[in-house]
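Input record (one chain):
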Amino acid sequence: MSAAGESGRAQQMRARAADLEQAAERAMDPQERQRLKGKARELKEQSEHAGGTGKRDTDPM
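The corresponding structure, as predicted from the sequence alone:
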């Protein structure tokens, strides 16, 4: 996959994670809230590994 494709995929994953976090905030059931938050966290981690911005050191030196 190209770098642009990986970046786009990571961006989509982050957007989906944000959607899941919002759904978790609206969830009335505590178990559903936890499930959604867990899925959002997994997607964020996957997006970091898929070429998205993450906790990488970006110091140019």
